[in-house]
Amino acid sequence: MPLVERLCIIxxxxxxxxxxxxxxxxxxxxxxxxxxxxxxNLDDALRLGVIDEASHDAASAVESADMVVLAVPVGTxxxxxxxxxxxxxxxxxxxxxxxxxxxxxxxxxxAFGEAPANFVPGHPIAGTxxxxxxxxxxxxxxxxxxxxxxxxxxxxxxxxxxxRMWETAGAEVExxxxxxxxxxxxxxxxxxxxxxxxxxxxxxxxxxxxxIFRYAAGGFRDFTRIASxxxxxxxxxxxxxxxxxxxxxxxxxxxxxxxRRAIDAGDGERLFEIFTRAxxxxxxxxx
Length: 287
Ligand code: NAP
Known about the structure:
By secondary structure, the chain is of the alpha/beta class. Helix content is 52%, strand content 14%.
């Protein structure tokens, strides 16, 4: 018997689609039904073998599933949960892939009254700036981390099933507290996206933006790649991880102010000290 007999992916994009492909490639899933809004994306998913069946109706799609994965933008979590609430199998495991955990848990609680014991919040630390089913690929999670943030009453059996599913997809699974997850990801993922979106937006609105982008070199491309990410997804992440993101932005504003002071004062020694410390830190974590 495969690890997952019937997988239901709600939101067949880069993240949900890649999970499906990884499990299929590992022979770890019996069949996959994908749920979405647009026919075009579901047609892509069927054509590319990402899913076996497509549906626009989340309620009926979850009825036959033993594993349900929410892979929609985080702002739609509550609405989707309200659709599926009365249709989930008693033994089915429900998990999600949202980049924010505290607010997703709150939306699940709002929809169900209390988060079900079989609900396991999760977040794969993997992705690209592409979206949709056509962007999915089976090796996305190989060697990448997946953070699971179980709640006090999350069933061990559900946690274990979700852990094994991600491990089968090639990931290394760790568990973390919900609030800690949101603070860490605000600093390491959400803040860098604000810097990339903000920088490109600012330059694009300058009078000589054509000239600026024409001469942009590799470093600019590297730094701004993530500004090509999906605006809906990132709007939702900002709205739903507000406090932690504001705290990370405030800390970064202090750093920027320090750099500005050093440049203004012609304090080369201070700049050298900051850059050296940053370079050592980066070399350290990139190994
Ligand atoms: P994506 O490629 O845009 O996929 C999301 C899919 O959800 C779309 O195909 C969309 O298709 C569908 N969808 C949107 N609203 C829906 C609804 N109300 N009901 C059913 N389907 C709906 O986005 P993604 O990158 O896979 O991201 C999905 C989730 O993963 C997000 O919560 C994000 O925070 C999280 N995540 C993303 C990354 C990353 O780097 N991309 C990394 C980790 C986690 P239709 O428009 O056709 O419905």
